Model the fold of this input.
Amino acid sequence: MLPQGIEVIERGWLSSNSILLCDGDEATLIDSGYVSHAAQTVELVRTALGGRRLTRLLNTHSHSDHIGGNAAVKEAFGCWIGVPEGMAPAIENWDEEALLLSVADQQGAPFGLDHTLAVGERLVMGGLEWQALPAPGHDMDALVFHSPDARVLISGDALWRDGFGILFAEVIGSGGGLEAAQATLEAIARLPVDRVIPGHGAPFVEVDEALAAAFARLRYFAQDGARMARNAIRACLTFMLLEQRRVSLDTLPAYLDTVPLYREANRRFLGLSAEALAGWLVDELVRAGVARREANFLCAT
Done:
């Protein structure tokens, strides 16, 4: 049970969760989902507001499934938008490479920025005081929000019930993601937390178990970088399928060789031909039940 005044709008994996925190007749929203679901986000938020006024939209980090609805939400409700200060230049310049949009073949809608969230900043949301804390790893500029009084953590993609988000700095960046994620998890473990509201999946109270699973996952990745690369490729291609619904099996090798994320992850860690990478990936997604072969297409299930 979450404290009164907090409502989680749990979404599918194409969109992050959105968290609504109410203070009297005003409210704050954290994260806004993917751009193709922006109209749905607006309607879900409108219903959850119940006549309240949305005054703020804050983001935990800069990835497309968390900021994609920002422009639509701001237009619909007239709220101001705050983002972690480290991501502000990429937003202000709408740098699609820095935002991983062009890198991962994802979409986004530019939006106006009104405030930058500093590490350590304190905010009142949902009748509680929260502190913005650094959470590098999945996104090196990410923040989480912690309420020590309620012992609740809004964790974004830094901690899920069964892991954490892709370590892009390791897979396609300059490195440091493993160490950063380790430090973030250790910092979370020191916080008074009884309940976690993650960026994906339902809120949970099994905090110790989630941390143990996340630390184990880090060790698994640290033993072999190819594991991280395969995880990133699987996850991002699944994301694309959720958006596009299908991809031609004939064009998949060329697609994987054209999109920087797949090409670079493969070049750095796997060393497969584009055809071999596509064959492995199709088999993996079908085996996992997230896709199926249909005629000459790979389709989302």
The mean pLDDT is 97.
